[in-house]
Amino acid sequence: METEIFDLSMIWAMIIAFAVIMYVLMDGFDLGVGMLFPFAPDEDARDVMMNSVAPVWDGNETWLVLGGAGLLGAFPLVYSILLPALYIGVFLMLAGLIFRGVAFEFRFKAKSSRYLWNWAFAGGSYLAAFAQGVVVGSFVQGYETEGLAYAGGALDWLTPFTVMTGIGLMAGYGLLGSTWLIMKSEGYIQQWAYRIAPWLLGTVLAVFGIISLWTPSVDPSAFERWFATVRWIWIFPLLALFFAYQIWSGLRKRKEVMPFIATMAMFFATYFALLWTRWPYVIPPNFTLWDAASSPGSQLFLLLGMLFVIPIILAYTAWTYWVFRGKVRVGEGYH
Amino acid sequence: MELDPLLLSRIQFAFVVSFHTIFPVFSIGLATFIAFLEMLSFKTGNPVWERLSKFWVQVFAVVFGMGVVSGIVMSFQFGTNWSNYSYAAANFLGPMLSYEVITAFFLEAAFLGVLLFGRNRVPQGLHLFAACMVALGTMISTFWILAASSWMHTPAGVELRDGIFFVTSWSEAIFNPSFPYRLAHMVLASFLTGAFVVAGVSAWYLLREREVEVNRKALSMCLWMILILAPTQAVVGDFHGLNTLEHQPTKVAAMEANWETSSGVPLLLFAWPDKDSQSNLVEIGIPKLASLILTHEFDGVVPGLKEVPVEEQPEVALVFWSFRVMVGLGLLMIGTGFVGLLLRFKGRYWQTPWFLQGLRLMSVTPFVAVLAGWLVTETGRAPWLVYGLMTHAQGVTPSLTGGMALFTLLGYITVYAMIFSAGLYYLMRVLQDGLEVDALHGEEDDDVHRPSRPLSGSDVTLEH
Known about the structure:
The complex is a heterodimer.
Chain A: H1 8-36, H2 43-53, H3 57-74, H4 76-85, H5 87-107, H6 114-141, E1 145-146, E2 149-150, H7 160-184, H8 187-218, H9 220-229, H10 235-252, H11 258-278, E3 281-283, E4 287-288, H12 289-292, H13 296-323
Antiparallel strand pairs in A: 1-2, 3-4
Chain B: H1 5-44, H2 47-81, H3 83-117, H4 124-153, E1 158-161, E2 164-167, H5 170-174, H6 179-207, H7 212-247, H8 249-256, E3 262-263, E4 267-274, E5 279-286, H9 289-295, E6 301-302, H10 316-345, H11 353-362, H12 365-379, E7 384-386, E8 390-391, H13 392-395, H14 402-433, H15 436-440
Antiparallel strand pairs in B: 1-2, 3-6, 4-5, 7-8
């Protein structure tokens, strides 16, 4: 078998994992900006906040679609079990993304009804972030399957544990959003972002702490992995704490770029810790990534395109961020 | 009454796709139009083109935004409601959708940002390039999604082993027998939609004598497009029909409401197809014309619905009438093109009120025609999900209950109704303000209002 030479499924697992973390980091900050919307000092600040993400949010969200389509292409079993299992949750997430997505266009075209789109933008962001956090929790929790299909109920995903992971991701996105704003704004808006960021950081650390302590009772295999088999796994939470300290000190020293970079790094470390906890299960507790793989021919056909196109995507995405670099100012539009 | 998850999923899919289709079909045509305007502006330096482009970009932004959000829903629909189908067809479907994302969606998303917000941030040539990339992205997207859709009608290049499709030839699967016809038909439909909407809006401005010079130019361009594309579409549609006759004879039988396989079949203008009695209760037709159109011979044999058992027959009446709506509107479009040409010879195409009024009304017809055509092709395939190989009932999600399907169906209807009415409202505002907005707040004008409304280049308050 060709798995001897190079393991296509393994490569694909890495690509999907990459798409997911790209999504989390990139749409994370613009969802975070949406969640901070109701607390913004004034309407000018909201304009700046929205302007800071308007040119890039669509591209950020495309990583989610890539995660979905790539999953279908490379691990169809995950796709066809996960989506029915999260049926209602997926609907709520999509509804959230719809409202916040159209708010970008509608808000600037509205005047007396503008407050409605402020709420649509904020509410949609909360809903989407929470639903995504729940997905993470349900992944730790596992899914009930029969044969090759989901066999559980419509609301199995909704438990106290997943509510906690939902809150955790909301706080995390909020932190990403606030540190993004520190980087992209100035004056009183930036001061406001500096004030709220430490609170969000505190919340993130508290919730992540609770989740870490809670996980072994939800998923007994996690306990064994952390305390018996894979000792070096502890490097990830330690790294996460290190980056948390970097965020804190960056905020204290009024650094502008550092807190955002450190927040992304903290997300990265946490994400790896989570992946290793469940590795190599993709539909815990029954299916590994090799069980879930599509045919090698399909994986290869898609891989060839991916290897060629993804670098190009990264290049022009980087270029658009460069085009829209620098501070977004009150009273300054893009057009 | 027992809630049927299969029926509800079918309704939900039809609803979600129909809603989504409206936007891309418009934005594909509009994106190309905008790229063309940017090119004219770049080459001639005539400010008229830039003004037109700036205005239509505003419309594009709203339409595209709604297309994006409803498109994200689509990519999850396969998994939530049709998980068995997704699992079975993933070897082909997954790569098609993934290629669409990496070759089209990222391109559109990244360069849309530059198109909307970058006019003063990048050189004009680069801005033109961004407009072209957005247009190219919409085309590439059409290519992949129609490859996937066509394959479900005329599956090729795969073999079914243990209920799972394995791809034996990528080229045969992608360029499956109905793909070229379907792609050409859809791309032409998109261009026609763009042309009719721009023509209708320009006509409306001309009726009110607003910005006559600029809108005349836009209208003239659209009328040329319509004159060439509408008849071309009829020819392509004819080829597509012949292809369908070859591969999906039952669908053609339903389109013609023809029950018995026979020669010299009349073209029915009106009929009341009745599945229970397996016949038409009423029919009025032109003798032998269906045979002539479908086989290009007066005595050609046209297949009948009774070739297949009742449970393999699609909803005949729906297919029959949707087809007539599509063709009828197509003929109307061809007529519009020729009337436009006639008036052009007289030098009066832009100041003939009844014609301009007609164009205004015609601007909605492409959407109706596209939805009708979509109904013909998709419901004509029933009960097959993958023609001849997998039925809808086999493809639906096994754990799905009627209650869940109903909950999300009502949910999508509510959400879409809200954003659709809001979108339409803001779109009307943009149209009402028209191009004059640009004249009032020209680019040299460092207006203080501008900053707070950067989106889509409009700095106008749209409520009055």
